[in-house]
Amino acid sequence: RPELLPLCTVDLLGRNGRASVRAVFDSGALLPIFPRRAAEDAGVSLPDAPNFPIQYGGGVEQGRRVRAYIEIRQRRLDVEIVFVERLELPYALLGRRGIFGYFNEVAFLEKVATPRVELRW
């Protein structure tokens, strides 16, 4: 059910400013995966050609892997992100590497009135 997804809004930072991206905390994803359009909106420079194959969902996509800054809950993080041409999901993925390691604890609270993810610094 969509209301049980651990969704949040992440700001991708680039030379054009920031682009807000709806994302889900995905403990099964290795790296963050964002749509290429977000990089264009924020002004994040991408390689001319794909440089990293990434598997998510049921298939493998060719992506452009770069380091970029994002903000989550007013904290700036320097992370590797794989940008794909067309993301098959209605939200970006926040994978373990580069995201979860910034926090002391990432807690998925499901049996509460408002299911959510708590990030503990």
What does this structure look like?
- This protein has 121 residues and is mainly beta.
- It is 6% helix and 51% strand.
- The strands form 2 sheets. Strands 1, 2, 3, 4, 5, 6 and 7 form a 7-stranded mixed beta sheet that branches.
- Strand 4 and strand 5 (59-72) form a beta hairpin.
- The chain is globular and about 45 Å long.
- It starts with 6 loop residues before the first strand and ends with a strand.
SSE series: EEEHEEEEEE
What structural category do the secondary elements indicate?
Answer: mainly beta
Distance between the termini: 28 Å
Q: Looking at the structure, what is the overall shape?
A: globular
How many H/I helices? 1
Radius of gyration: 14 Å
Strand residues, percent: over 45%
Largest sheet: 7 strands, mixed
Mean pLDDT: 90
**Low-confidence runs:** none
**Helical fraction:** under 10%
Number of strands: 9
Itemize the secondary structure elements and their pairings.
Layout: E1 7-14, E2 17-25, E3 33-35, H1 36-42, E4 52-56, E5 59-72, E6 75-84, E7 92-94, E8 105-109, E9 116-120
Parallel strand pairs: 2-7, 3-6
Antiparallel strand pairs: 1-2, 1-5, 4-5, 5-6, 8-9
Short characterization:
With 121 residues, the chain is mainly beta. 6% of the residues lie in helices and 51% in strands.
What labels describe this entry?
121 residues, mainly beta, seven-stranded mixed beta sheet, two-stranded antiparallel sheet, 1 helix, globular
